[in-house]
Each structure stands twice: as structure tokens, then as C-alpha cells.
Amino acid sequence: MPMPVFFGLRSFLAVALVAMSALASLLMNGDAQSGLIVLVCGVAAVLVASGGHEDAPSASALPAPAAPGPQAPKLAAVIEAIAEPLLVIADHHVEAANQGARELLGQHILGEDVRVAIRHPAAAERLMDPQDGANGGPIHLVGLGTREQRWEMRIRNLEDGRRVVHLIDRTGSYAAERMRVDFVANASHELRTPLASLLGYVETLSDEAGEDPEIRGRFLKIMFGEARRMQRLIDDLISLSRIEAEKYRAPNQSVNMGDLVAQVCQELSGSPRAADLVTQIGDVPPIRGDTTQLSQLLHNVIGNAMKYGREATPVTITLVPEGKAMVRLTVTDEGEGIPTQHLPRLTERFYRVDSGRSRSLGGTGLGLAIVKHVVERHRGRLDISSVVGKGTAVTILLPLQSVS
Q: 129-143, pLDDT tens digit by residue?
């Protein structure tokens, strides 16, 4: 029995043109996903439009079918397989929309004018231009969905006159770029401030003021303090960079946290408030960690509690088991506390509740950012709670080396 003919000559040529359009899109834009979307939606449109019988032989020349064959795939089912928001437009109205598009724009958008469905002034002109899908580049939409979201809209024309609108969420990449720019600006500012101070004092000492031993000694002391401040900042920047570079590689050392807490407290014994340290260390098994990074974490957390706690009040360090899989470290001070609105931002780089006080105490603004990244690398959890007027507690959960 001869094989049934499902594609006629014109259908075959249409599919070939769609494939060539997808290839051209890939070559011009370097976007494999957009090219794939053009190909899939174009083939589906040809199948739906032709109904599987265009240019087919006459009914008298075809053998009688034994049973109904499978129907051509529906366009809506094809675009539903794509996770990102996707719409198909015909005559400036939304003909089909996948789940991602309906969740973003609303379940009511089917059949609506596309300018009403995508309520964004920057998108309206591009959506009404029939040639935009042939040569127009992506357009960036700010505030579509929520005020903070950033979307990239791409339009592609299909062979049958319909158009595909593809929305790509760029919120994450935008936020990452904004953090990078802010980080560079803040780091530059933090380095420029002590550097400007150093240059000013050097210039003053090069004049007649440098001949007075008392003035010279006082200026040199200030210059030394500014140079140490720059050194601490550079050291913290290098540490943060190293921790971030290793964040996806879990540490594999066996660390006795009780011994490490005692060692850090001993290293801090020369600090003005060393006598206020109170340790409550329970019997905890070793954890899986990086000794150097955990030591830096303890120095930062305990050092902050000593800096910001009130004089002659205890800084309590508690280390106890947390269930069968974790160990809980808590560092508590009895300082002035932190207002609630500042708590979510304490681990941001260079964020300070009181900039003047932090700098006067030698803070770089990176201590808690380093703590956050160390905890993340150790697959742990960090929580900071505070009550104004009573103090602050930093709680860190770290996984044990082995779970029985």
C-alpha cells in the first residue's frame, strides 16, 4: 500500500522558509533560543494552517484510511512547552499565550489588543510595527509585572503573518550589574578617603610644619592610622574575593569549633574589652569546614560585638548542638541594638547603620558580608536579631562533619 502524503509541495517550501528564517535569526542575533522559537512556532503554524492536506492528491487517488490519524499539533500546545512568557499575535490581538505569559500579564489577555495585554508605553510602538519582527532588536521594559522587574522583549514574524512576542526576565542580571557598579563605587570611595587624608598630611609635612617635632609626630600617627585603614580594607576585599571564588566548592576539613572559639578568644585577649568575653561551649562534634574562613568569621562576629556592646557588659559566645545535623553558634552583646529596618541590609557590602561610628572604630563595612559568604560556602544559615536598647544576637548554624 502506498504511504499517505502528509505534506504537499507548498507546505514543504513553507517549512523550508521557516527553517531558513530561524537560521538567519541565529546568525544575526547569536540567540539560539530565539531561533528555536521561530522554528517551532513557524512549523506549527504551517501545520495548523495547512491541516495536513495542502497539495494532497484527490480523494479518489487516496486509499481509504483505516482509522483517523493523529491531528497536527496545536500552536497553543507548542508554545506551552516554553517556560518564558510567549505570545502569538494575529491582527494586533493575542491569539495564544503560554502559562508564563498569562501569569505575568493576566489570564484575561487571550483575544485582547496586544497594547492592552502588554501595558507598557515603550512596547506599544514596536508591537504595532509589522516590520519590527524582521529587523528590530530587543527592547527593554522597566516595571512590567512589578516595579523592580526588568524584561527584554523580542518580536519575530512568522510566515503566515502572525508574530511571536518573547519576554525574557533580566531582573537578576540587572540586579547583579547594579550590585557590581555599587560595589566598585563604594570601594573606590572607601579607598579614596584615607588616600586623600594621607596626601594632605604628606603635603603639610613637606612644608614648614614638618620641622616641628610635636606636629610631625601627631601627623605621622594619623597617617599611620589611615594607612592601616587602607590595609584592612584591601585585606577584606581580597578575602571576600577568595571566598566568593570558592563558594561552590564545599569545604572538606574537620574543624573542632570549640577549640577554634577558644583560640580566637585568646587572640582577642589584647583587645580593650577582652575581659568581657563569656564563653559557653557545649560538647559538639567536629564540623565540616575551612579553618581559616571560620576563624575569620569568628573574629568578625565577636569583634563586632566587642566594638558595639556597652562598656563593662558581657559578650556571650554560646556553642551547642542543634539537633543531630547542625551546631549552633550564638554571639550576643548588650549594646544599643539595631533598628529593625536596618537588619535585612546588614550583610550588604559597605552598608553601615552609623557610618561615622563604624569608621571611628576601624570598621571596613565588609565584615558581615564576609560572614554571610563564609556561612553560604559552609552550607549553613545566618540570622541576626536585635532589640533597640537591649542588644544584638548573631546566630549561625553549621552542618556537622557526619550525621549518624
A: 766 655 567 888 887
